[in-house]
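U., I forgot to send this yesterday:
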Amino acid sequence: MVEETIDLRDVPPQKRHGLVMDTFEALDSEGTLTLVNDHEPRPLFYQMQAEVDTFDAEGYSVEERGTEEFVATLPKL
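Result:
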């Protein structure tokens, strides 16, 4: 299983979702994309749940590690 990590805190907001979608799509089956973000990525979760058939929404998790550090795990089926 391959795990990819992206720190989105320095990526301009208008480029974040595209970067995440492209990186997730490139993952092999059963891979995991881990995101470090400055806010909880709830809108991204809903977008992926609605649009990406290979997104394992039940395996999704997010951990708040500080006021501006959220770590989300997006598993791929």
